[in-house]
Amino acid sequence: MTAFENLMAHARDTAALDNVMTRLGWDQRTMMPHGAAHLRSEELAALETVLHQRRTDPRIGEWLEAAEAPDDAGTAALRELRRAYARNTRVPDRLAAELARVTAMGQEIWAEARRNDDVAAFLPILRQVIALRREEAAAIADGGDLYDALMQDYEPGASGAETAAMFDRMRPRLVALREKILNRPAPEPLRGTFPQDGQLRLARKLAEAFGYDFAHGRLDLTVHPFCAGHGEDVRITTRVVETEPFNCFYSTIHEVGHAAYEQGVDPAYALSPLGRGVSMGVHESQSRIYENQLGRSRAFTGWVFDQMQAEFGPLNLQDAEAFHAAVNRVHAGYIRTEADEIHYNLHIMMRFDLERDLLRGEIEAEDLEDAWNLRFEADFSVAVDRPANGLLQDVHWSAGLFGYFPTYTLGNVYAGCLFKALAAEMPDLDAGLARGDLGTPTAWLREKLQRHGALREPRATIEAACGFTPDEGPLLEYLEAKFGALYGL
């Protein structure tokens, strides 16, 4: 075998083992007995030790030095492997295993603390997670910025400084738009009780409408919705509150966007370095365009309105226009995952600033609740009423995912660019959406973006799909036009 063939064979087995670890994480967050948390943390630490040893195998360095790519896909695979090898060889086996063990326990402790509104119960494990991630960041930063080093795990090529500059450009227009909207009469919200079984039936129908393949996936309940898996096994989750069905429906559509990307990658790339989404920002572009530009459009919400009445009977909202307004109602709520399209990015900007301060040591775990509450009230003019609506609402920090949050807004920015290109090519887009037929836009996204997996770098992936250099302009223009029309601005 050539050096390239040896590399690909090694990478294939490593990816298969990583999929096993992903499945263990999915099980932990959906079906695992609560009392198995300690055992699961040890299992994940043991498997991470094996994976880390494979990822840092000295033969990889030798193969990379000798390998010759047979084609463009091979060149891209070598790029991904070089990046991963340079990162992983800086992290000791001990640290990799300890991070897996502590973050597995952290997610269980966080879930219990969230249920009990008990920040004090969460702080000890959070301190451990922060310390370990700082240590890891120092190891991989090679003297550079710690936060930038961690961002590379989620968005290669991104930096904290560039992200902060983009946020500074976006924030004034978002805040100005919000203030105009909040000075207008608020639309009537959806009210009522919507049983879990009915919500899940409609969630499955929505998933199928967006092209989710249940032959290679499943929908389950969890505390914090997520998508897990690649290729032929991609699983999604949602959550149900019987008085807030939009939470379930749009969480489902969001996770289907992630799943569509993974299910849509060219099967020829399976278990290779190209066989998954190239970054979390690009991943979020899929979940957000599915959820917002398509899923919350006037045309599609009209179809959802009919489906809800068929499932639950008459609603308090008298027609499709009132329903569309309720789906897109702007209000300063506590929860990021339930936020409207304007407030959502302000949630992300707050988390970005807080976690950068944490990585730099400017605040510590014990300062975080006060810092969160002060910043939230300053940004949203609402005081946090309980920890589950504040610091404890997101799973990310318990899982050690520092550097992940900004990819949500980057995904929104990318989605704005993709939708501009999609709408320009499909002037009759709304006709299909009004019938609940998303085949044309989802096929466009699969062809333009999803099937290519990690073939291109993140920004190049978006540029190739939409035909222009991405920036925040299309997103802000879309938001101003959509909400200007909704609120008569």
Automatic annotation (TrEMBL):
What does the record's cofactor remark say about binding? Answer: Binds 1 zinc ion per subunit.
Q: Which Gene3D superfamilies match?
A: 1.10.1370.30
Protein's UniProt name: Metal-dependent carboxypeptidase
List cofactor names only. Zn(2+)
Per the UniProt entry, what are the Gene Ontology biological process annotations, in alphabetical order? proteolysis
UniProt GO MF annotations: metal ion binding; metallocarboxypeptidase activity
Function as written in the Swiss-Prot or TrEMBL entry: Broad specificity carboxypetidase that releases amino acids sequentially from the C-terminus, including neutral, aromatic, polar and basic residues.
**Keyword tags:** Carboxypeptidase, Hydrolase, Metal-binding, Metalloprotease, Protease, Zinc
Q: Which domain of life is it from?
A: Bacteria
One matching Pfam family, short form?
Peptidase_M32
Similarity comment? Belongs to the peptidase M32 family.
Q: Which residues form the active site?
A: 255 (proton donor/acceptor)
User: Organism, per UniProt?
Assistant: Rhabdonatronobacter sediminivivens
Q: Which InterPro entries match?
A: Peptidase_M32_Taq
User: Which class of enzymes does this protein belong to?
Assistant: hydrolase
User: Where along the chain is Zn(2+) bound?
Assistant: 254, 258, 284
Its recorded reaction(s) are: Release of a C-terminal amino acid with broad specificity, except for -Pro
In short, the EC number is: 3.4.17.19
